[in-house]
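Allow me, if you will, to draw on your knowledge of protein folds for a short while. I have a record of one protein: its chain in single-letter code and its fold written as discrete structure tokens. The full record is reproduced below for your convenience:
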Amino acid sequence: MRVSGLDGQVGASRSDAAPGGGAEAGSGTPAARRAVVSGALGSALEWFDFSVYGALSATVFPQLFFPDLTPGVALLASFATFGVGLVARPLGGLVFGVLGDRLGRRNVLMATLLLMGAASVLIGLLPTYASVGIVAPTALVVLRFLQGFALGGELTGSQLMVMEHSPDRRRGIAGALMSVGSPISQVLATLSLTGLAAWLTEEQFTGWGWRVPFLMSVALIVVGYYIRHRVEETPAFLASEAKNERAQPARGLLRQHWRTVTLLVLAWAAPGALYYITVTFATSYLTGRVGFDNSATFGLMVVANTVSIGASLLGGWSSDRIGRKRVLFIGLTVLLAFLLPFFLILDTGNWWLAAFAITGALIGVQFMTGCQGAFYAEALPTPIRYTGSALGLTCGNMVFAAPAPFLATWLMQISDNGTALVTGYGLLTILVSAVAIRLLPDRTGRRLEA
């Protein structure tokens, strides 16, 4: 059988595409525009909460939730709680992926938004170790797990919501418009923390200021829920449901598509790991070793993430013209060029040079992210697209991204040449990604067989 929706043929006429509900039929329609807006904004709202946690895990959380540990061990413990969110993503991707393939993309995305909001608000209300002892870090781990669980379903679901409403030859740029939610949220999260760190004393910031971004989630989730409530279910899912194409159980997916899912996991090794090394670990490296204060470091991250937004859009747009795999290999090349001198540049202590190094690395990551949604969606047929794509992306983040800040911190502590070891780990992830991408087919804009 042929799978409809995303699997429309390049150059198909409107009359040919309309029955499948996917390709050109959705171009420029109010439903398609609402899908893009809701996908980008909804994803940005969820990433905002996730990003705030990442920045705070490198700065104030060690002293607030692990005060009895030495500074180095406390930082490791804080990064471990950060990694819990990434470990939870595959489970969330699996659960929400199966539900999304059975019940529809829209319904699942409403649930992930509410779950992320509830977990984030509770983190903002959480007492510290000084108040309730071991209960505080334990509750922090549980809430971080729920954040990751929700984001595991959000990542792929929002991508599919956008692209299954989009024309075949514009899936790359459509996915890129959604993917900018991550760097936009990084900018918003970092700006909020930068402003709080600048306006409050250090005692006020560590006492209550860090809670403000999490508590803001109440207003953000209300806005996100309203936006998503107005979005229709995707034509691809409706067409598949009309043909009575049942979503396969996860074991059936892995049995029939295990090679594709495995390669999708490995393909995201470099962008997943190097993103968190150049953002989360670099934040602690700059404040703890180079000597930057929180305000200077957060400001640097604002610059880097703002510039990288354009790289994501360019990556998606370019992939529609030169193919997904070429864009991914260009991104890997940029990552390689900035990884090799990365720590040498940071160690200069020059703010502008550090901003250049981190911005360059993030440009490489976001250039790849711009076409990731389309590349993963095109790898699998409609009835199991949500589950398979979610497992590929979230497992890639769990295996390579989740341990990256922890591993980098540990390597720095066990060796006088720790930066070389961290660089070596980054090079290994680039090699893994290059091999996996090479083995995956490039189906840019082509009809897929179920």
